[in-house]
UniProtKB/TrEMBL annotation:
Family: Belongs to the aldo/keto reductase family.
Protein name: 2,5-diketo-D-gluconic acid reductase
Transmembrane helix is among the record's keywords: no
Domain of life the protein comes from: Bacteria
Record: residues binding substrate: 107
InterPro entries: AKR, Aldo/ket_reductase_CS, NAD(P)_OxRdtase_dom_sf, NADP_OxRdtase_dom
The organism of origin for this protein: Enterococcus florum
CDD domains linked to this entry: AKR_AKR5F1 (cd19133)
Length: 283
């Protein structure tokens, strides 16, 4: 598996298995087990996904040594403060059945980000977390966090897909030494992405699916990619992207698909911030 070196020397597998919206405990446990058996060594969850315990059970059942796995979770908005971040991360570790995390992210750019970041820095110093980062932070917020604190975020996990390519953000984050990780690479099926003519025609050239073309497009940009499926065959397909390469012509065609706006919502929308502030999950 290809990997990327983060700014603190830790390496992260470039392909990860995401568990968003897999809320049924039995299904989540089995999905993680199937993903690890398919070859994934990078598993991504979050406090707000409400499946950390099931994810932990899948990890334990896999029998793969802990040192061979890269596990990520994220601190939800209501826990974004110094004290709450620290206590909630311990609860996450307990639910996952782990002694440490490979990557810990602040899930959203809201609440007491500075206080929570100081907690993450301390958790990293204590060895509870190997790498720390952020999710859904605009470039200016990421730079602000980096410039006024001891630790520059190792990762920023943001929405990237053919309709929201984030080319400028990727370049700017890299300039700061922050690795980029893509959530929703398939745009959760929006705009009929799996039937998209351009992506289908590119895939047909290599006998690959639209999903494989998208994953390969991101891998070639050295962007960490999170894919999700509860189907073992699709899990295996999504990781089978290292036996072909896109041409410059392919990449130009994909570039022309860019709409340049989120396929979901804007993190700068005041109503969205208010909604998240009121979403108490007790995690």
């Amino acid at each position: 598996m290809q990997s990327i070196k983060l700014n603190n020397g830790i390496t992260i597998p470039i392909l990860g298995f995401g568990t968003y919206q897999i809320t049924d405990p039995a299904q989540a446990e089995q999905a993680v087990l199937d993903a690890i058996q398919a070859g994934y060594r990078h598993i991504d969850t979050a406090q707000s996904y409400m499946n950390e315990e099931a994810v932990g059970k899948g990890i334990a059942k896999s029998g793969v040594p802990r040192r061979e796995l890269f596990i990520t979770t994220k601190v939800w908005v209501e826990n974004v403060s110094y004290e709450k971040a620290k206590s909630s991360v311990q609860r996450s570790l307990d639910r996952l059945g782990l002694d440490y995390l490979d990557l810990l992210l602040l899930h959203q750019p809201y609440n007491d980000v500075y206080g929570a970041w100081h907690a993450l820095e301390e958790l990293q110093e204590e060895g509870k977390v190997r790498a720390i980062g952020i999710s859904n932070f605009a470039v200016d917020r990421a730079v602000d966090l980096a410039e006024f604190n001891k630790v520059t975020p190792q990762v920023n996990q943001i929405e990237i897909n053919p309709f929201q390519q984030q080319t400028d953000a990727i370049a700017a984050l890299r300039e700061e030494g922050i690795a980029v990780e893509a959530w929703a690479p398939f745009a959760e099926g929006k705009n009929d992405i799996f039937q998209n003519k351009v992506l289908t025609e590119i895939g047909n050239q290599y006998k690959k699916s639209v999903a494989q073309v998208i994953v390969r497009w991101l891998v070639e940009q050295e962007v960490v990619v999170l894919t999700k499926s509860v189907n073992p065959d699709r899990m295996a397909q999504n990781i089978d992207v290292f036996d072909f390469a896109l041409t410059d012509e392919d990449k130009q065609k994909i570039a022309e698909l860019n709409i340049g706006e989120s396929q979901f919502f804007s993190h700068a929308d005041p109503q969205m911030i208010k909604w998240m502030a009121g979403r108490k999950m007790n995690v």
